[in-house]
Design a protein that fits this description.
This protein is α+β, with helices and mostly antiparallel strands. It is built from one helix and four strands. Strands 1-2 form a two-stranded antiparallel sheet. β1 and β2 form a beta hairpin.
């Protein structure tokens, strides 16, 4: 019996490793100087972001963006500055709510 249990546990572990990491749909990022949840899918439940100090966004002119219809599940989209955690630079992104 213990041999069967060990075999089943090994098979389950192997299946979990083969599945690979899940893709994150939401992340907490600095947006316009404050921490906000940014989700790539509007149907995802946004996480509660812990308080963090964000550097102030540099004053820049917003890029001209063509009018667009917001994706399903959102009401409006706007260009906002988002801090890229890998480069440490502010980038303009279209964010929808």
């Amino acid at each position: 019996m213990p041999r069967l249990f060990h075999a089943a546990a090994a098979a389950a572990s192997l299946a979990l490793l083969a599945a690979g990491p899940a893709a994150a749909e939401c992340a907490c990022r600095c947006v316009g100087g404050e921490v906000r949840a940014i989700c790539s899918n509007p149907l995802e439940l946004a996480p509660i972001c812990p308080p963090a100090a964000c550097p102030p966004a540099p004053p820049e002119l917003r890029p001209l963006a063509p009018p667009r219809i917001p994706p399903p599940g959102t009401e409006a989209c706007a260009e906002r500055q988002v801090l890229n955690p890998w480069t440490g630079r502010w980038e303009w992104r279209t964010l929808c709510r």
